[in-house]
Design goal:
This protein is mainly α. The chain has a single domain, classed as Orthogonal Bundle (Arc Repressor Mutant, subunit A). The chain contains five helices and two strands, in the order ααααββα. A two-stranded antiparallel sheet has the order 1-2. β1 and β2 form a beta hairpin. α1 runs antiparallel to α4 and α1 crosses α5. The chain starts with a helix and ends with a helix.
């Protein structure tokens, strides 16, 4: 595998690993509506701020969020690029399976006609 292909799959690996956790998915869902501080992101969860910060570090390492510096707070922002890459990768498989199901539908139609069920 080439270095560029490895780099691409490493990004996807990090994205899917980050998305595997429901807390991190909920954080990303919250960030869809705009930036938020760590304390704002921690509020809906029954966990400490340091625990939420660990989740944020995973999201940041995966490139899914950025954390800025704004006086006393570090607002988190969603970065759509890695999610778009993951969606594009998944789209290839959606097209593949839709094609397979369409072929199966054609085959089943032919079998029904041959057996006289239609």
């Amino acid at each position: 595998m080439s270095d560029s292909a490895t780099a691409g799959t490493a990004g996807l690996d990090a994205t899917f690993a980050a998305l595997a956790d429901p807390t991190r998915r909920a954080i990303l869902a919250r960030l869809r509506s705009g930036e938020a501080s760590v304390s704002e992101l921690a509020a809906p969860f029954a966990m400490s701020q340091p625990a939420v910060s660990k989740h944020l570090k995973v999201l940041e390492r995966a490139g899914l969020i950025t954390r800025g510096r704004d006086a006393q707070r570090r607002p988190c922002r969603l970065r759509p690029g890695p999610l778009e890459d993951a969606a594009g990768w998944l789209e290839n498989y959606r097209v593949f399976w839709e094609d397979r199901f369409q072929n199966l539908d054609v085959l089943l139609g032919e079998l029904k006609r041959e057996s006289g069920d239609e």
